[in-house]
Amino acid sequence: MEICLEKNWFVLQDIHDAGEQLHLYNNDDFLTMIGPQMSEWEAIPELKHLQLLFSKTPYWGRELRYFNDAPWWYKNEFFIDDATADCYIITFTNVDYYCKVWLNGVFIGAHEGYSAPFSYTVTPHVKTGCKNRLIVKVWSPWDAKVDQDNQMRRTTDVFRNMVKGTYEHSDTFIPRDVNPVGIYGSVTLKSFRQAWFLAKPEFSYTLSDHLKDAAISFKASVEICGASSVTLHMECIDNYTKDKVFKAACPVSRKDTYLTEDLLKDVNLWSTWDQGTPYTYQIAMWLEDGDGRVLDKYTEITGFRKVEMIRDENQTTFLLNQHQFYVRGTAYFADNYLSAMSLNRYRRDILAIKSCGFNIIRVHVHVDLPAFYELCTEMGIGIMHDSEYNWAHPFTDEFAQRFIQLYLETVDMLKNHPSLLCWICMNEPGLLDTEASATRSHSRSMDVTPGPILYESVCRHDPTRPVIKGSFCADDPDSGDSHNYLGSLRGEATHYSDIYGTFEKLNTEYGFDAPPYGESLIKAPAVYERLRKMMPDIPQIQNYQYQLLKYYTEHYRMQKYTPNSGYVQFLFSDIGPTSYYGLYDWWGIPKKGLNAMLESNMPIGIFLKYRNQIDAVYAVNDFQEDVGLCTAVWHITDSCRNTLGRGESEIYLGKDEKVLIAELGERFGDDVDVFLLLKKGSNIIAHNHYEDIYHMPPHPAGHPARMSHEFGIRLYSS
Q1: Mean per-residue pLDDT for 80-89?
Q2: Angle (nearest 5°) at CA 193 between 192 and 195
Q3: From 3.20.20.10, 3.30.559.30, 2.60.40.10, 3.20.20.450, which CATH number describes the 200-302 domain?
């Protein structure tokens, strides 16, 4: 039996944090008395972050700070009729961030985190045939300490004491006053008879050297009550054919851990959509009594694949199923509030990501809901997964131990998803380390704590995937990727064309923040009013975002494996009405920057290398199949379409290959447009165009130096 505790919740904010002293978990008769100054219970319609339930503007504004100034209490009262159960387990999927739990006045336990489910066995405390009272205290506090007390650098140097990336990243990413708090997801109470799983069962595999066969392993820890006759069943089903490719059963007679191993021959491999087929299997493990009744059941979707990374001074290259794998990625952070997400919103986003040609999503400094990972596996989108370690955190052993424990919970929760290809232990560690900058020493987080032990722990915990120790640390042998914001966050004095002639092994961040069009911003009137002066400039700012993304993306693609092995554009969609890095705004309306990816990010492309002159034309094929013999055409004109140069070349474009079509090395005047075609027979398989190539738009004035901290928005020159 399962009771879903989704409705009938009440909350109150404990403004003086006196609820525990007043024993609120036992009774609430005192709430309306004059003395304690307590709030009253208020019904809520659903379990979501409290800002979404109570604030008219949950994405910006100083009034949001009170949500985190004091803890909140939740109450749910429910009945249980079943008096025959042997065990009751209560499970919370998501509580943000700290919590304590009481059932019928008895303290059950405490938890830290926001993304990993947690459970308590509550059998002795459940009352059958009468009302049960579940009480939960929840809080997500603000941080006070700033590195070296440098208040001018609070945005970057505040010591984030919680392991969550969704707060105090207030450089126009997460607004200053947004710090999600509350119970979301689901709360369930399950009852069991005779036998049940003590923990989540585990399925694992090891592929043979030729990747044809898989040594599979089923592992389950079982609790048995009494002398029950119970059987553990295990199954593997091909999701495409629905064939049962493996089936086994064994009797279980006592509390123990049971292990079954076998060899599965001729497996089909999971791959990203552009490298093959995202082939999956369903794994099922269940306990059954002597009469064939299912007592407890676990299922998961798996896929057989091998992912590796080659890292040295010359390359940072992914291998997927023993083939080089060129990364065309985008960073993703769906919403400031994860509880605002749904299956359909995730499906919309991932379909759009795939239609843009991306094969990788970098989940940026947060953990998404389960539906996201399931959809990525289904649609063949790979995942690089950040931890929540981002910029400044306490440099203490206590924090390191907390952080590692919580991150390993994330690893355990997500490691069964075949789409997850790589863990990232820390994002930009030491980038803003004031002590390291002052002493010219290495980053404390990379070299002292928590970096070394964190990296070692994740590698040991999940040896099936590559691990990046510190994203942005291009020369670190355990990292190897770079971030590049020339022409963007590196300052108004820089321009995107500054990357001409540079080389990067693997770039996992580049981009530019451009506000949405006024038609979207008007839906957030206060934000619209603050940006009203710059409304005429938005098309030009969006055009700069488009030009930057196109120039960067093609720069990397024309260096395919020489040395570049891929890139991750930042960011796919705006995470709220005030954060503007996305190709799409928060309302789902595309910006001009989207066109850059549609033109330059597809698996087959034709590109122009240029800056002060036209250097060369390249063709690229990222598929694992030959394109074959094709014809490349280039047409160079002025703005009146007078021909300045024209040519064509027959080339052979092999699988996963880059081909230099032509070296031109000419300027062709000052007013120059270029049109490129790649044809196979009469079919155009790729095309591209460039307008007025020598007159590149200037870096927008005022970017990125000024912002409104209350709104969390970039101001540019307004």
Answers
A1: 87
A2: 90
A3: 2.60.40.10
